[in-house]
Write the structure tokens for this entry.
Amino acid sequence: MTQIPQNVVEPPAEEPGALARGVPGRPLSPLSIAWRNLRKHRLAMVALVVLIIMYLAMLCDGFVAPYPYNAWDRQQAYHPAWNLHVVDAEGRFHLRPFVYVSHYEFDPYRNRIWREDTSRAYPLKLLVRGQTGTMLFGLLKTGVHLYGVQAPARLYLLGADWQGRDILSRIIFGGRVSLTIGIVGTAIAMIIGMIVGGISGYVGGAGDTVLQRICELIMLIPGFYTLMILYNTLPASLTSMQVYFGVVVILAFISWASLARVIRGMVLSVKSSDFVMAARAGGSSPWRVVTRHVLPSTFSYAIVAASLQIPAYILGEAGLSVIGMGVQEPAPTWGNMLQQAKSVTEMTFHPWLLWPGVAIFLTVMAFNFLGDGLRDALDPRTVGLKKE
Amino acid sequence: MIDAAAPLLTVSDLRTWFPIRRGVFSRVHAYVRAVDGVDFTVSRGKTLGLVGESGSGKTTVGRTLLRLIPKTTGQVFFDGQDVMALGSGELRRLRRRMQIVFQDPFGSLNPRMTVGSIITEPMLVHGLYDRRERKRRAAELLERVGLAPEHVNRYPHEFSGGQRQRIGIARALSVQPDFIVCDEPVSALDVSIQGQILNLLSDIQDELGLSYLFIAHNLAVVEQFADDVAVMYLGRIVETASRQDIYAHPTHPYTEALLSAVPIPDPTLERRHVRLAGEVPSPVNPPAGCAFHPRCPLTRKLAQDADVKETTTIFSDSQPVRIMARCTAERPSLRPLADNPAHCHACLMRQ
Amino acid sequence: MGAYIIRRILIALGMLIGASLLGFGVMKLTPGTYFDLLKMNPRISQEHVDQQIARYGLNQPVYVQYLRWLDNLLPFGFKPTESGSYLWVEESPAAGRPAQAPPEDEEEESPPAASEPAEAATQPTQPATLETQPATQTAQATPPAAGAATLAASAPPAGQPAMAKHKFNWPRFKWPNLGESFEHQEPVWDVITRPMLNTLLLNLVAIALTWLVALPLGIYAALNQHKLGDLVLSAISFVGMSLPGFFMALILLWLFAGMSNFLPPGGLRSATYDQMTGWHKLLDVAWHLIIPAIVLTIGGLAGLQRITRGNMLEVLRQQYVTTARAKGLPENRVIYRHALRNAINPLITIFGYELAALFSGAALLEIVLDYPGMGQLMFTAIVSKDEPLVMAGFMLGAILLLLGNLVADLLLAVADPRISYS
Amino acid sequence: MPKAITRALTVLSIVAVLVILWVILRSQTFGAGGVRPEVAGTVPAADYKPIVGTYGGRFVRATVSPPKSFNPVTSAETSTTEYTGYMYLGLTKTNPWTAEVQPELALSWTPDESGLVWTVKLRPGVVWSDGVPFTADDVLFTYDTTYNPKVSSSMRGIISGPKGERWKLEKVDDLTVRFTLFDRNAIFPLLIADSIIPKHTLEAVVKAGRFNEALGTSSSPDEMPVTGPFMFDNYDGSRVILKRNPHFYRLDAAGNRLPYLDEIVTIIVPDIDVQTLKFTSGETDILESVSGKDYPNIVRPREERTKKRPMQTAASRPTGSDFTVYRLGPSFGESFLVLNQNTGTNPKTHQPYVDPRKLAWFRDVRFRQAMSYLMDRKFMADGIYNGLSYPQYGPMSAHPDLPLAEANTVRFEYNLAKARALLAEMGLQDRNGDGWLEDANGLPVEFNLTTNVENEPRAKVAATMAQDMQKVGIHVNFRAMSFNTLITKLDYTYDWEACVMSLTGGPEPAWGADVWKSSGRLHMWFPRQPKPSTKWEVKKDKFFRLFHLWYPLQKKPSTKWEAEIDECFDKGIAELDPVKRKAIYARWQEIIAEQQPFIYTVTPENLMALRNRFGNVFPAPLGGVLHNIEEIYVKQGGSASQAAAQGQR
């Protein structure tokens, strides 16, 4: 954070010349400097905007998505993607896209042959009234959707799954799990890592040894096997919400140790720094020293580590879900939606089921860019020495 | 209530050893004897200058007596209280009276806190004053150390080194201490700023009647500032005397060597230049007897003097050197000079 | 250095015991056993299931089960007995011998599970009868002196054989083993060797590919910083880093195996493998390795390429490189003799970590791609609760991690003269 | 600015990836060209006329899990029997069309008048694959071993009486064995279909107490003489190779010794999907247990392949139409919903296993019938199996051709209105207008529904019924769990409410005694009852009595149906007269269809695909495609690749 290089020749008169750098009258906190640096990082800003849009969509899922996540229509099972038209059956062009009601029949080889009933077109509308869904993690109910078509027609921008549920709606609702699991998991791991690393580094001695051994033990166990074993220990009677937290805790259990070790290392170096000595000499209690001086110094690392770890959580959850260990149907997560696309038959005949994978890809990439930007913005020297 | 003549701080036989662990079971293999038996006193309202090369343990002394580093053995009495025996609550109360100013103006201020909160933090943790009063005092202190009161809301990185050192001093002063350890407060600063800071410290001392333990690595800084001077070499004090005595009549060869390095403003004066052979030995394995003997210039002299009978030969810089046998066998203790009991030194050859 | 390695190994042993306790404990949190699977088959009797459960000691307390498992692993094991005792073997009271209590204190700590001899008698499981029978036979058939000799040195002098109710069960040499897999009904070692080798094959191929491709690319990118090639590479890196491996695997599988039959859909060898000649066998395996190896390589490539590039740029900025250039050394020599060596040093640690992740790193991919490796094996073992197999995979993974870390540290010391462990 | 370029490039590549994905993911993605494979059904039994084939060739199949053992006595899992079925013969076998018992190693089996003593005449001239003749001693030895307490035999419980009674076997002469049973057993001819093992190699092993480990996967082929058409050759962890038994007893019409095939290679492919790919890419010759979901993929048009890949032998070169898909009618893996009717209490916590409020519903036949009305069997067939499955209403109704199947069972077709009406009759209706049902007390109607995760179609069946239950206003919490966990609940802890399961079935109801009898271990809705408990046992529990006052039963359902089922099974097993037996089991099917303890959903169609290069293929509804494996041969001159394969050998 040092803005003034040490070898700057000082003005002899000791006029606060160095102060001219800041905006007069307003303090330039480390955070605002970081923000200023981050703003220069275009790609990170694009990623940030993309993420903000995604999170907003996730928070307002019931409103943004045209259908609730479990709204099924068995007549429309495996409806292909993109049934919007601008040219009608008579070849006339319409400015407002519209949808026909469609239904399928099996051919002798059990392929679904889709036929559209062109007698009536259902135009795409904004702010339509439809099935009641929930938003803000189920706190609010909404019957109005950002866009949609009138029943009985159904809009399938990204196609439908085996029960005729809209993939796009389910992706938006799936964000409830996939977009939050990284943040919640990192927060848990960070809290544990900070506490353990802080205690271990600051107190030292036998406690340090024991905690370090525990950390090493956690880091020693093979991650993915442990994930699978731990998932199997989750009691069977859990609701999908509880399973979600179970998975978060399991993922955090795997990853807190490496965080704790790095934080311990930073605490060790910060601990012997003069400003910590000064705080102790000033009479601050150990608790105050740790919480006010030592741990905040590790925050910049923590923020970067968090942004770089979030993708790992998203991928971890998705990976577990893909092999059937995760939040179960009918609650959507990007992972368990992909699980349905896992079979080659599904991929060949219903490739639109792979869309949740694209959502994972975009999110992970956005977090990678953001993390990259944050690393540059916060502290290029002390952060990111080791890639996990 | 306490005798004003009694020294404010008495340090006796202080040792700080750091263990070195190695081997399969990481047993303690050896110790770094950073401080190895140090005695001195600091009088009220006076300044003791503690001088030594880097690695001589002077910073460790300063931090050990504030209990920032655990001691190995020894006692420290501050105003009659045994500092080393205090419980955590008493220690905190004592911390109000003993403060420290650090060498590095960049590392000693938490970059994440505003200047105001840095200065008010000691007051806060000691429960001094209310919120508004603390703010007022912070502004006042800033002004006292030569900064503008409105700087309270700024962050350390916006200041220059000298300004930061002033902030460090303001922080030390905020709880109105009686005693401040100044741990090389000016050595990281440009020469032009050094004087300003030293003057500031000196003014504050006059104003508030503080005592200082002033740690420095050369005698030049101490010369204008300290009342008494103690010279450290390899964890031990080799000479202690008043400022005048030490500059006028250095008795320990190490002090002489240090003094010879001090530039003399008066070109008419000439000082014999003593060059020290070799480097400071490792504190892990200090030389037996007088720790200074491998580098001691007196041994050169000894080579010519025939009247010293018991001698032995050592190799210093691969040169065979004859030295007094006692120097390699006996650890010299600090003894007063016969003519000046306030002037002590630890050289076997001169005792 | 030697002391350092010994110290690391001692710590590692402790860690392994900790890891095994952790793994075993976690696994025991789930209810049920592997043999519950059999219960849904009306043609399998309850008695059969019970017998299987007893045979593997799954009806005993968890700590006894753990000791059984641990005992298998030790070269000098204490022979497990069905009564659950490990140090003390219950002697069947031989006729004519006074059964008197021994003076030692330890003897009174009769093992907790030893109070179930009745159950052991009513449900004699196979290994038990096999093991105890010869022992009792020898004890009864031989005269006291010879009997004492078989009890090794602990037995008191012949003449007054103080036969205890329990006798100390001296550790004796045996080959360590990992137990027997429930599902495969075979020694675990036999079950895992082939998947282990398959996993090693896949990972080593992928690591070799990754390094062979990433290092030159990283160096190229660094030397052509900000030029088009560098930019294309970093763009690809970011995309490669963010594409989830399993998703990429699914897409490749679908494109090349599902839609076009161009690449094999999974597994490692064709059914006709053993009809092939040597050259074709090699090609067949290589053909099957393409999809998983590509996915793994792309996953690792992006990160490694970027790190190499970063390190190389860092080194090129150093003063000694400038000095070397200033000396007039040819540019190639500057780059490959001076810069490259120092740029690669930090990568050595990464190599160690890759080594550590050999077993479990590609687990998800193996499952998704149906590659017959450890990940696949462990997945089925975990789901069906084949505990000996799970523990073996778990421990092997842990050992490899420890080894990988140690190798990384040692390699670093070898490569970097500034680091030494003394 | 280079930075700008890198950004532009990254954005461009992301956009490119997205566009490519967009194009690809929009619709079905295979080409329309190529040839579709043929689709065929079963062959009538009358058309079963094998011709004389030619020797040679290998047959490659895939299986899900590796073999655990080749020991037919200790292992009864599919992973063992799919090999031992080819290796060891039983005394009898079942007809693949009619399920009748046919001679195999035994020529005849005749009971005496008491029905307890059966005289079994063995087939003369049968030798083990090592040349040793097969005699009555082998039969005696097999049953001795099965009854040996040190042997963990899967059959012992089934052929022992409740008090440990055993069959007594006597050797009358070398080719005659007399079985003396402890009770009358109508399925005795079926029971002796189990594999006979050789005495001359295994007797010493049994004596040494090592029989449980014998015939393991690491045993050498020499240790395993067999009577079946194929013998064990090699297992290397990923492939099992069975080779031709030169001493197999059957001859073809021309007097050649069967079988024709040289080898059966079974490769272990855990993933069904990859099995499909391996079949369509030509690696395997047969695709067993095809799911209806994958049917369109298997019959989709495929390009004729002309280019030869270096690593593929000519024999395995696939062509678009070189296989036929067989639709064999209903299989036996029916899924059903079962509701927990256990009235017991947990001895540890003294809590009832099932909430008494819910137990009252589950034990009410109207509730179960309402559930049956909620089964959208049409969608289950279409959405999960692409229409390739059969609705099922009773325990055997999907198999109208089975000898003991009774077609005239009650049917509860999908009808939400009738379901609502039945629930309303029970007092479960929407009382506050929120769309969800409440009981008389205003409490919501809710229960937990579960199934196991591993079986995807079953999970989909469960998800579908959960939706319909929600549609009529029942709060149903559906969660799939791992199989082990589920079994623990079903078998030990009994703390479940509703569950979708399926059982390994078969044409003979007597095998299911453990399921249907109230004392059975697999009597899932209330296992191991000391005596049938269909009557309300109100006095047992204080809470229960309290609730009982709140829900007075207007109409008591038939209370003794469980007892009647027990009776059916006890009588059925002892009844040797086929006509009377059929009547007994018809009554059982009627009870189940009406009482709905198992609420059946759909039975998937049994689908298989086989390469066209094999001759003597006579698919049968019960035996599948491979029931006459010894007669199946590789057609000569079928294709050039075939000739190449012959040449290579």
